[in-house]
Amino acid sequence: MLQATFKLCAGSSYRHVRNMKGLRHQAVLAIGQELNRRALGGPTPSAWINQVRRRSSLLGSRLEDTLYSDRELAYIHQGEEAMQKALGILSSQEGWKKENQQANGDKVLSKVVPDVGKVFRLEVVVDQPMERLYEELVERMEAMGEWNPNVKEIKVLQKIGKDTVITHELAAESAGNLVGPRDFVSVRCAKRRGSTCVLAGMATQFGQMPEQKGVIRAEHGPTCMVLHPLAGSPSKTKLTWLLSIDLKGWLPKTIINQVLSQTQVDFANHLRKHLESSPAPEARC
Fold first, then answer.
1. How do residues 177-188 score in pLDDT, each as one tens digit?
2. Is the CB of residue 202 less than 8 Å from the CB of residue 221?
């Protein structure tokens, strides 16, 4: 389908395509939909991400150039790169050590990854369907500060296409003021296909959001959340969260490890409490 779609587009002259904005837009959407179909259907996370990246040469054609600026394309590619790296880390089952184990089965694992540093992996089961989690974590991202006390504010600075956003996140100070105020500017990418959803991100530069006085600009490394229905219980969701953060400043590693692993445990608890106490958003037409 992808090859046929592209040949159809190429069959018209460039001048003709430029003058037919509706046709051009439909063609790019068709290509994008085919890439998404293939992306989440591959045998391994790294395989389908690599497939998407190989097909990016098509989206870098003159057709896409009319839709996105060079800077926007750079953000899109950076988001895809973050997803590829994060899924690559998660796909490796070796070297993980237990950091935290809760009575309800929630657990935090960690390991040191070359060129990345120490990363943390939260694995939980949430008694809610995946669509509900997607609504809260992606479509209502800016409301996270209302239910997660570890987050003061998340603001979407720019939306690029349907999958990529640039965000500014202001984190709350940790208990006991062990870690002072931090903020993050990140590019985030969301991909979903069927019953699987992947949310990924990493630190980026955004000229309209310079560093704030009195706040340390920390950085997310490659990070992601993977959501899919629990096998045998489709009304429940398995959530895996890979967390990689450079908090900057002068902080002992023991403090950093304690804060980050506890942040993940707290997130799961706050998310459950929020979902249980608030009604699901009405289905959209």
1. 567 789 999 999
2. yes
d(CA 178, CA 38): 45
pTM summary value = 0.75
In angstroms, the first-to-last Cα distance of the chain is 28
Local confidence band at 284 (pLDDT 50, 70, 90 cut-offs): very low
Give the bridge partners for 171, in sequence order: 151, 182
Are the C-beta atoms of residues 185 and 206 closer than 8 Å to each other? yes
Report the alpha-carbon distance of residue 237 to residue 228 in Å, rounded: 6
Smallest CA-to-CA distance from 40 within 30, 32, 48 is with: 48
List, for residues 189-231, the tens digit of each pLDDT value. 999 877 889 999 999 999 999 998 889 999 998 999 999 999 9
8-state DSSP, 212: P
Are 154 and 168 spatial neighbours (Cβ–Cβ below 8 Å)? Answer: yes
Kindly give, in sequence order, each residue whose CB lies less than 8 Å from that of residue 194, ignoring residues fewer than 6 positions away. Answer: 40
Whether 232 shows a pLDDT value over 80: the answer reads yes
User: What are 39's two structure tokens?
Assistant: 């992306």
DSSP H helical ranges for 11-145: 14-18, 21-39, 45-59, 62-65, 70-91, 130-134
d(CA 133, CA 124): 13
